[in-house]
Amino acid sequence: MKIDILTVLPKLLESPFDHSILKRAQDKGLVDLQVHDIRDYAVDKHKSVDDYTYGGGAGMVLMIEPIVNCINSLKAKTKYDEIIYMSPDGELLDQKIANQYSLSKNLLILCGHYKGIDERIREHYITKEISIGDYVLSGGELAAAVFCDSIMRLIPGVISDETSALTDSFQDNLLAPPVYTRPANFEGREVPPVLLSGHQAKIDKWRQEQAQQRTEERRPDLLD
Q1: Strands 60-62, 50-52: parallel, antiparallel or unpaired by DSSP?
Q2: Which of 52, 69, 182, 220 is at a distance of 20 to 30 A from 213, taking alpha carbons?
Q3: pLDDT tens for residues 199-224?
Q4: Residue 125 within a domain
Q5: Cα-based distances in Å from 21 to 5, 10, 220
């Protein structure tokens, strides 16, 4: 998979992709992730990327020219399955969407900032808008990192035990059941005996029941 991320704050994305599973995905050659500084495509010597909004009002808006220059430069080399804008009014990210985009070959992700981007970019260049929740962040960089994490971990070979991702919360519209590890008895608090029984069918049944119960108690909306 190839992922290109457009941002005015490239350093903000260094840490999320330089550790753990996301770094492993890149080291294995399973994901080619590149972060592009929109300022490199500015049209003036000051590398301006934002300007005042027409009609007045507080806040600055990311300009159309640097972003379009960057998009066109990348599109000349790569055919993208989707050009995604991380936006609070986009489609809410869930496991189904993550599963879908984990099968993509080439994705371009635009991070907004300030008061957002010139609307003409959304109208003529963006093919999909995605939100990670009903709240506002300072910019789209952290949202882009969340989105990338959700899809990269699903790529075969990224996680050592590929079956692990298949049992995550939300994969079957249920929350994950409780999990335990050693010691079996800690200060009188014991692991459920069924998990120590070695009887896999009973363990699977217990896990399914626990997942169902936890979902009913904590996220009944998932069962609708």
Answers
A1: antiparallel
A2: 182
A3: 999 999 999 999 999 999 999 999 98
A4: yes
A5: 18, 20, 31
Strand, helix or coil at 166?
helix
User: Residue 128 pairs with which residues in a beta bridge?
Assistant: 84
Residue 187 corresponds to which tokens in the numbers above?
Answer: 């200060």
Does residue 216 share a domain with residue 112? no
Q: Are both 124 and 174 inside the same structural domain?
A: no
User: Does 158 fall in a domain?
Assistant: no
Whether pTM > 0.85 for this model: the answer is yes
Angle (nearest 5°) at CA 127 between 123 and 132: 105
Neighbours of 13 (CB within 10 A): 19
Given 122, 152, 182, the domain boundary residue is: 152
Using CA atoms, how far apart are residues 205 and 185, in angstroms rounded to an integer?
Answer: 23
Q: How many residues does the chain have?
A: 224
